[in-house]
Amino acid sequence: MATKQEIQAKAQQWFDQKGWKPFPFQKETWRAYLNNKNGILNAPTGSGKTYALALPILLTHFESGANREKSGLQALWISPIRALTKEIQSAVNKAAQDLEVPWEIAIRTGDTPAKQKKQQQQSWPEFLITTPESLHLMLAQKNYSRTFRNLKAVVVDEWHELCGSKRGVQVELALSRLKAVSSKLRIWGISATIGNMQETAQVLLGADYSSADVSEIRADLKKDIEVITLLPDTIEKFPWAGHLGIKLLYKVAPVLQSSKSTLLFTNTRSQAEIWYQQIIDRIPELMGQIAVHHGSIDGKTRAWVEQALHSGILKVVVCTSSLDLGVDFRPVETVIQVGGPKGVNRFMQRAGRSRHQPGTTSRIYFVPTHSLELLEGAALRLAIKEGVLEHRQPYVRSFDVLIQYLVTLAVSEGFDRSQVYQQIKKTYSYRSLTIEEWDQVLDFLVTGGPALNAYDEYKKVLVKDGLFRVESRRIALRHRLSIGTIVGDPVMEVRFVSGGRLGTIEESFVSKLKPGETFWFSGRNLQLYRIKDMKVLVRRSKSTKGMIPAWMGGRMPLSSQLAKVLKRKLDEASEGGSKESELAKIDPLIALQQARSRVPRKDQLLIEAIKSREGYHIFVFPFQGRFVHEGMANLMAYRLSLVKPMSFSIAMSDYGFELLSDQPIPFDKHTVGTLFSPEHLLRDIQTSMNLTEMARRKFREIATIAGLVFKGYPNKPHPQKHLQSSTQLLFEVFQDYHPDNILLKQAFQEVMDFQLEEQRLRQALEQIVGQEIIITQPQKFTPFAFPILVDRLREKISYEKLEDRIKKMALQLEKV
Questions:
Q1: 20 to 30 A from 799, CA-CA: which of 155, 242, 366, 771?
Q2: In the prediction, which pLDDT does 349 show?
Q3: Contact 249/277 with Cβ under 8 angstroms?
Q4: Cβ 347 vs Cβ 107: under 8 Å
């Protein structure tokens, strides 16, 4: 049996053999793990986080005398995305072989073949890399307690990606059960970019968190990131979102051609398809050396793209967040970010993929999609320099996830009411769960609750011999098919008529296509042949034109941390004469804004009142992000309507919002302050917005996660209209017959917390109270107002007509 000192020496020797020198944070993590500590590790991308935990886990094999017989599942490595699993497996496998640890390092995700999963169940690997969803599927198996009884370690990789989502709640619940099954469990989280490290450790460990017993290790390493903004030759004084990006392709092209390997990140899957198409058109010699990668593309294709990039076959990969993350020592030379990432963490994560090795400087090129985004480039550089990181707001009291988890336990071995309640109460998410709420959850599982107790399909769980169980095979099968918290539009499989799977596309997009029409997907121009059995059958098309699929999901809002830095940069730009390239480039735009209105300082709020042929406009510029502006605009409209009954059209961006009315709007510098008062915020926001409709939309997701609606069997999904009508009916039933239903109340709370960002909205209003409010009355629309105006027009006009109209508007506005 090896001592702790001998194990650490083996880890050091392995590093020496590789010609590497371990960082102090790696040694500290080795010691903490071998001393049976739980913890969280925060270190920059590319600094060797994986080996900080993989090595001591592997080397504990020698603690038991290096027995070469199969010892069952010893370690779980939970990854947020499947794209990471093979890289992690490769890295850990190399270490295990070099260290002569006879462990099988395996993967178990949704992409793992059924035959391989069955083999794993017969003889579990010692080290298993999985996802939150696949872990819950393991908990849904009979005898899962035997599977996990020898488990010694759980590592949650990229914990910052999971912590602020319901997938993080899934992890919390799974850990609560694993801790009950295995008493010797050590739990660790790994994060590259996170601001609230202590809170995320508390979320991961729950009631087991104690600052004295938990190791919070932050690497004392400065990861240098060079931010290069690709500047347009001329600046448009009237910018609009999405217009500039692709027009800078002539600047992007030389970067792509001069780099050995490039990741070009876009913020949406639609943008990824557009950029792939445009790059091929401009640089045809890249054909065969460029690919597109996003979550809707077939898993085998994604795996090939990842391997081809690392092996040098591919020169460029156009991607989304599907390639945000990655294990150490697998570099690409160049990273390009198209459009503002809206958050510092996300930008740093993507930048870190460039020269993804310890001690190297990462370089990222920033491509603005409109002129004002140049401010974001400068703000991102400053935020990185000052170490600004966003906090992740954890989900709490997600009863839909809890109900799904309890059915998982009932499907497998059943659960005891009091034991599981105590386990769940120890999680961060459910620490405030009352016994009355617990009883309501159990009653809902067994009887369907007061509103649904007449329908047998909602009576999923039976109480037998003191345990809550699911005995119906049909219920068990449907539940296993529904495990997970990622809810989107129903998808349809895209296949060639001749055979070959390309991936999945959302039903809402396909429903707009007619046979013979073309669209871009997976980097190919495809012609729709027919739709059969929820399969989209296609042929290759030689056409150079085609529709771009739109995927569900709104725009990402500007984070509060980046918003603060952005206002500082705007302050600097307003002074003029800056030598920083981005600020110098937008100087003409800022000068025109100053001439027609004002450029607000960081302690000022600018309001522009403009009369046009459309009516009376108010533009407000808090620079707080789209979600906050949505709530603020509705609040202001409601409070104005109390002064004078009137209706408004509302538009918003990350920088400000617009109210448009056909009547003069009653406000002045003496009364405007009351419009932004944080007093009675909750009451007024609930009255001002159609919260019921917003909650109804949110309830669709909650009902699906909780298992109230079934999305269908593989290749036979239920139509979207059927799912929507089912959830709408349930929402109305709960409202009418059970208004205290926990899922109904959760829907309203999630709207306040995550869609309207109530807490952040309140903070923004409190900030405005202390600011000087500047009201101007420009004769024409200003550069700041123009992009918000365009966003409103975008909803009414096709892109081609919109572009023509905007050009005419901009020309008219540029006239003095």
A1: 366
A2: 83
A3: no
A4: no
Query: Which residues lie below 8 Å from residue 121, measured CB to CB, with a gap of 6+?
Result: 141, 147
| pLDDT score, position 799 | 46
Domain at 4-218, CATH from 1.10.10.10, 1.10.287.3510, 3.40.50.300, 3.30.420.40: 3.40.50.300
Task: Please state whether 741 falls in left (phi above 0), alpha (psi between -120 and 50) or beta.
Answer: beta
How far is residue 2 CA from its own chain's centroid? Answer: 42
Identity of the amino acid at 366: F
Lowest mean pLDDT among 23-27, 105-109, 280-284, 572-576: 572-576
Of 202, 552, 682, 558, nearest in space to 396 by CA:
202
78 pLDDT higher than 90? yes
Phi-psi region of 329 (alpha: psi -120 to 50; beta: other; left: phi over 0): left
Q: What is d(CA 333, CA 315) in angstroms, rounded to the nearest whole number?
A: 10
Confidence (pTM): 0.84
- Give the 3-state secondary structure of residue 344: helix
Predicted confidence (pLDDT) per residue in 142-196, tens digit: 999 999 999 999 999 989 889 889 999 999 999 999 999 998 899 999 987 777 8
Determine the 3-state secondary structure of 13 from DSSP.
Answer: helix
**Identical fold at 4-218 and 225-386?**
yes
SS3 716: strand
- Listed in sequence order, the DSSP H helices in 518-606 are 560-575, 581-585, 587-596
What does the alpha-carbon distance between residue 758 and residue 764 come to, in Å, rounded to a whole number?
10
- Cβ proximity of 291 and 330 under 8 Å: no
CA 225, distance to chain mean position in Å, is 22
The pLDDT tens digits of the residues spanning 461-493 come to 999 999 999 999 999 999 999 999 987 666 678
- Per-residue confidence band for 362, with pLDDT thresholds at 50, 70 and 90: confident
Query: In one letter, which amino acid is 692?
Result: T
309, 259 contact by CB (below 8 A): no
Q: How far apart are CA 305 and CA 200, in angstroms?
A: 33
In this structure, the strands spanning 491-496 and 535-540 are: parallel
Report, as an integer, the average pLDDT of 104-129. 93
One DSSP character per residue, 279-292 reads HHHH-GGGTTTEEE
* Residue 239 CA: distances (Å) to CA of 34, 372, 565, 577, 784: 56, 7, 21, 21, 8
pLDDT of residue 357: 64
CA torsion, points 535, 541, 547, 552, in degrees to nearest 10? 30
Decide: 168 and 203 in contact? Cβ < 8 Å: yes
| pLDDT value of position 381 | 94
Edge to edge, the sheet with strand 772-776 lists 649-652, 657-661, 615-621, 604-612, 772-776
Question: Which two structure tokens, joined as six digits, stand for 641?
Answer: 């309507």
pLDDT of res. 263: 93
Question: What percent of the chain has pLDDT above 90?
Answer: 54
Q: What is the CA 793 to chain-centroid distance, rounded? A: 28
Distance CA 205, CA 260 (A): 42
Q: What is the pLDDT of residues 14-56, one digit of tens each?
A: 999 999 999 999 999 999 999 999 999 988 777 788 999 999 9
Q: If you count them, how many residues does the chain have?
A: 816
**Going by CATH, does the domain composed of 225-386 fall within 3.40.50.300?**
yes
Extract the tokens encoding 590: 């800022």
Distances (CA, A) of 269 to 84, 93, 261, 439, 701: 19, 32, 21, 43, 21
pLDDT tens, residue by residue, 188-245: 999 877 778 889 999 999 987 777 778 999 988 777 889 999 999 988 776 665 555 7
Amino acid in the structure at residue 623:
F
First to last CA, the chain: 84
Question: What per-residue confidence (pLDDT) applies to 795?
Answer: 55
How far is Cα 27 from Cα 366, in angstroms, rounded to an integer? 36
Ranges of each domain in the chain: 4-218, 225-386, 491-540, 597-816
In whole angstroms, give the CA distance from residue 806 to residue 808. 5
